[in-house]
From TrEMBL:
<dbReference type="GO" id="GO:0003924">
    <property type="term" value="F:GTPase activity"/>
</dbReference>
<dbReference type="InterPro" id="IPR042101">
    <property type="entry name" value="SRP54_N_sf"/>
</dbReference>
<feature type="binding site">
    <location>
        <begin position="190"/>
        <end position="197"/>
    </location>
    <ligand>
        <name>GTP</name>
    </ligand>
</feature>
<dbReference type="InterPro" id="IPR027417">
    <property type="entry name" value="P-loop_NTPase"/>
</dbReference>
<dbReference type="InterPro" id="IPR004390">
    <property type="entry name" value="SR_rcpt_FtsY"/>
</dbReference>
<feature type="binding site">
    <location>
        <begin position="271"/>
        <end position="275"/>
    </location>
    <ligand>
        <name>GTP</name>
    </ligand>
</feature>
<dbReference type="GO" id="GO:0005737">
    <property type="term" value="C:cytoplasm"/>
</dbReference>
<feature type="compositionally biased region" description="Low complexity">
    <location>
        <begin position="18"/>
        <end position="58"/>
    </location>
</feature>
<protein>
    <recommendedName>
        <fullName>Signal recognition particle receptor FtsY</fullName>
        <ecNumber>3.6.5.4</ecNumber>
    </recommendedName>
</protein>
<dbReference type="InterPro" id="IPR013822">
    <property type="entry name" value="Signal_recog_particl_SRP54_hlx"/>
</dbReference>
<feature type="domain" description="SRP54-type proteins GTP-binding">
    <location>
        <begin position="356"/>
        <end position="369"/>
    </location>
</feature>
<dbReference type="InterPro" id="IPR000897">
    <property type="entry name" value="SRP54_GTPase_dom"/>
</dbReference>
<keyword id="KW-0342">GTP-binding</keyword>
<feature type="binding site">
    <location>
        <begin position="335"/>
        <end position="338"/>
    </location>
    <ligand>
        <name>GTP</name>
    </ligand>
</feature>
<comment type="subunit">
    <text>Part of the signal recognition particle protein translocation system, which is composed of SRP and FtsY. SRP is a ribonucleoprotein composed of Ffh and a 4.5S RNA molecule.</text>
</comment>
<dbReference type="GO" id="GO:0005047">
    <property type="term" value="F:signal recognition particle binding"/>
</dbReference>
<dbReference type="InterPro" id="IPR003593">
    <property type="entry name" value="AAA+_ATPase"/>
</dbReference>
Length: 383
């Protein structure tokens, strides 16, 4: 259960109670049911879509008096999938990574542990977009492990490689913390075609299943279709979208933060125009958006996420480096791992620029976006 922040009453009381001006909040409804009561209008210059916001209650649920302050909750999945859904997710993830999995696993079938095996493994890792640095790191560690543990069977070497990959990727496995800020402001960046706007819609649904109210900011003012697409996701999830037909995307972001503060909204997600990191003037605009958001709320944005197309290979690593240098990324979302994605780029990211991977996506449905789990990912590659 998430902990929410509330305004302190004017006079202290020995037992926590609601402020005199606010009615006592009912016990929270299950994550699958949402409030449809309209939110108060925000005093912002931007146009707001007619879909009402679905605010999560900001009053803590009724519970026994406690002496310790409640802790922020972590978003893990929304909600926990049924066993058959989990099996379906893992099977589709494995199917998406099938090419790399085949290249790696077939090496160990009846193989002798010699230099030829290591050479073939090196080629397979490089082909999977693991990159030179991560590939050499894994090979050196594997040779050392084989020698120290006196491994003599190919299946043992495969298991050793699996362990090394899990150890390498586990630092990227980090949950997205909710309830720590009011509101939590998330700035979403990425190149054109990475699935940025669609991912924002999926994340909004994930937030709602964790009883978080959401407002979306259509900061991609260069592409009219982007605003329309985000509005559709807003209507689908029953959340407000702050948008302007034209103008400064930084102003849209500022208005969205102001609206969220006025409404008591839990999460603000700011969409930005897709751009290549080589477009320096556009990268400067991203920096401006971040500065303007900070003026609207101290410490914001608390999360700066980069959406990456899983099929872009080593170019994904270049994107991470460029956007991280410009914006100081706090997390990544890897999308489209359901096609020709090779998957090895996560090893390159882990070794070269270890920005946490919050989510990975394998399709267009809401449930196709799931928190990154290093064990599951490596299982899909090497089982």
């Amino acid at each position: 259960m998430f902990s929410f922040f509330k305004r302190k009453p004017k006079e202290p009381a020995p037992v926590p109670e609601q402020p005199a001006s606010a009615p006592v909040a009912p016990a929270p409804t299950p994550a699958t049911s949402f409030s449809t009561s309209p939110a108060p209008a925000a005093d912002t210059p931007s146009a707001v879509t007619p879909s009402p916001i679905t605010p999560a209650a900001i009053t803590p649920p009724v519970q026994d008096v406690q002496t310790e302050a409640p802790q922020p909750a972590e978003i893990v999945a929304a909600p926990a999938p049924a066993p058959e859904q989990k099996r379906s997710w893992l099977s589709r993830l494995k199917a998406g990574l099938a090419k790399t999995s085949s290249n790696l696993t077939t090496l160990f079938i009846g193989a002798r542990i010699d230099d030829d095996l290591y050479d073939e493994l090196e080629a397979a890792l490089l082909t999977s977009d693991a990159g030179v640095e991560a590939t050499l790191f894994l090979l050196d560690a594997l040779k050392k492990k084989v020698k120290e543990e006196k491994l003599t069977e190919a299946v043992q070497v495969k298991a050793a490689l699996k362990t090394l990959l899990i150890d390498l990727l586990t630092p990227l496995q980090k949950p997205l913390v909710l309830g720590q800020y009011q509101p939590l402001v998330m700035m979403i960046a990425g190149v054109n075609g990475a699935g940025k706007t669609t991912t924002i819609g999926k994340l909004a649904k994930h937030m709602q299943t964790h009883q978080q109210s959401v407002v979306l900011a259509a900061g991609d003012t260069f592409r009219a279709a982007a605003r329309e697409q985000l509005t559709i996701w807003g209507e689908r999830n029953d959340v407000t979208v702050i948008a302007q037909e034209s103008g400064d995307p930084a102003a849209v972001a500022f208005d969205a933060v102001a609206s969220a503060k006025a409404r008591g909204t839990d999460v603000v997600m700011v969409d930005t125009a897709g751009r290549l990191p080589t477009q320096l003037h556009l990268m400067e605009e991203l920096k401006k958006i971040k500065r303007v958001i900070a003026k609207g709320m101290d410490g914001a944005p608390q999360e700066v996420l980069l959406i990456i197309d899983g099929n872009t290979g080593q170019n994904a690593l270049a994107q991470v480096k460029a956007f991280d240098d410009a914006l100081q990324l706090t997390g990544l979302v890897i999308t489209k791992l359901d096609g020709t994605a090779k998957g090895g780029v996560l090893a390159a990211i882990a070794k070269t620029r270890p920005v946490p991977v919050y989510f990975i996506g394998i399709g267009e449905q809401i449930e196709d976006l799931q928190p990154f789990n290093a064990q599951e990912f490596v299982d899909a590659l090497l089982n």
